[in-house]
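sorry for the late reply, my laptop died twice this morning and i had to redo everyting from scratch. anyway the thing you sent over, i finally got around to it. pasting the sequence first so we're on the same page, its 349 residues, then the predicted structure underneath. double check i copied it right bc i was rushing
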Amino acid sequence: MSTIKSNYMRPLDFKHGRVDMTHGSGGRAMAQLITELFAAAFGNTYLAQGNDGAVLPPANGRLVMATDSHVVSPLFFPGGDIGCLSVHGTINDVAVMGARPLYLSASFVLEEGFPLADLKRIAESMAMAASAAGVPIVTGDTKVVEQGKGDGVFITTTGIGVMPEGINLSGDRARPGDKILVSGMLGDHGVAIISLRENLTFHTSIESDTAALHELVAAMLEAVPDIHVLRDPTRGGLATTLNEIAHQSAAGMMLYESRLPIREQVNAACEFLGLDPLYVANEGKLVAICAPEDAERLLQAMRAHPLGSDAAIVGEVIEDPHHFVQMETAFGGRRVVDWLTGEQLPRIC
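ok and here's the structure:
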C-alpha cells in the first residue's frame, strides 16, 4: 500500500464521489485513493515506507499469524461496522493463540460505484479500532471489481503477533474434568445483524459485541499461565466451537443451560426467528478451558476486566468416545448440541 503524492489531481470528493475502475488500475487514481483515504486514516511509520511491504523490527518470541476475510451484510450495524470488525476479528484470532498482536495488513476488494463517503467511514473506523488496540495497519492492497460483481466492499486482514515461551494453547489440550468458561453474554453480534436485516425492534437495543480481546487474554494468562484452550466463538457460535475442540481433543463436553449468559432480548429474538443462541456468532467473546483447580482463579481474572465482567463457568469436559457436546437443560434433561448444519446466518462477519 504505497503512498504517492497526488497534487496533480483534484482532491477526492468524499461527499458525492464513488469508486470507479480507475481506482484499482494501478495508476494515478489508485495512488490518489491510497494517499488521500487509506494512508490518511492508517498513517504510521511503517506504512509511510511506501513500499510493496513493510519492513518490521525483529520480535522476541514465537511468531503467530492469522488471516480473516470479512463479508458482513449490512456493512454498518448497531455497535460497529465492517471496518472495526475486520480489525477486531484478526486481533482476536492472534490473541486466543496466546500471542500479543503486533501488526495488521488490510486488503480491500471494492465494487465499482461504492460511495467514497462510506469507504472513508469504514477506513476511519478501522483506524480507530487499530489505534485503540495499539496494533497498527502497516501494509495492504486495493482491488476494484465491476459493478454487480461484488457487494460494496470485502476486507481481508492478516495479523502477526508474538507468543512468549511457556504458553501452549491448543484445541487438542482439553482433558476430562477441565472446566469450560465463557467471557460474557452470548449471541449479541449475530442477533444485532439479523435484527437489522429483518427490521426487528426491541425494548432495549441489541448491539454487536465486536471488541479486541488481547488485553483480556493477557490478564487471563497472567492469572493462569496454563490455560489449555482459548477460542473466539464467531461463526457457528459456542456450539460449533466446542464441537471443534471436542473433535481435536477426543473428548466430550457437557454444558449447563442454567449457567449460560444470554440476554433476555437475544433469547427472545432467537425464539422469534427460530434460531438457537448457541449457534449465533459472537465477535467480542471467548471460550476458555482450564484445569478444574484453576477455574475459579481464571473466572475472577476474567470478571476483573471490563470485557469479561459477565464471565461464567458454563460446563466441563467429560469422557465420551463419541466426542459429543451435550447440554443439561433447565428442565433436567439432556440434549446433544451437534455441529451446525447448513448456514444459519450467512454474511454474519
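Helices lie at 28-42, 82-95, 116-133, 188-198, 214-223, 237-249, 264-273, 295-303.
thats about all i looked at so far, will dig more tmrw
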